Amino acid sequence: AAARRAIVVATGSEVALALAARERLAAEGIGVRVVSMPCTRRFDAQDADWRASVLPPGTARVAIEAGSTDGWRKYTGAADDPSGAVLGIDSFGESAPAAVLFGHFGLTADNLAATVRRCVAAARRGSSP
Fold first, then answer.
1. Which helix (H) or strand (E) holds 60?
2. In this structure, are residues 29 and 6 in contact, taking their beta carbons and an 8 Å threshold?
3. Count of Cβ atoms closer than 10 Å to residue 44 Cβ
4. Mutual orientation of helices 14-26 and 109-126 as an angle, nearest 10°?
5. Under a CB-based contact definition with an 8 Å cutoff, are residues 73 and 87 in contact?
6. Stretch 18-46: mean pLDDT, rounded?
7. What is the pLDDT of residue 129?
8. Predicted structure pTM score
């Protein structure tokens, strides 16, 4: 098994994309933990040690959400940390079947895997002396 180097946080239908990306990355030797987080309030209510065991510091993190990305940045550090990112939809007004919209907005297993690779590389650079 590949050593875990990244975490993907997802919920709902995005969990399937996270699992598909994890399989692609495992084939490259990049281990990924998928965290299904259907309720951020429940996660936030847990003690700090437990939260850190699920989302350990120093691990590249990517969240995927078929909606606004704002609430997910606190779990990835994406606002100020290049080893974190959030894929989502921060605009309004597009209309098409879900599969078409997911492709248009980059909510695909391939794009998620590419984003994880970038975040893992940034985490490695950040830990270099």
1. strand 60-64
2. no
3. 11
4. 60
5. no
6. 96
7. 38
8. 0.89
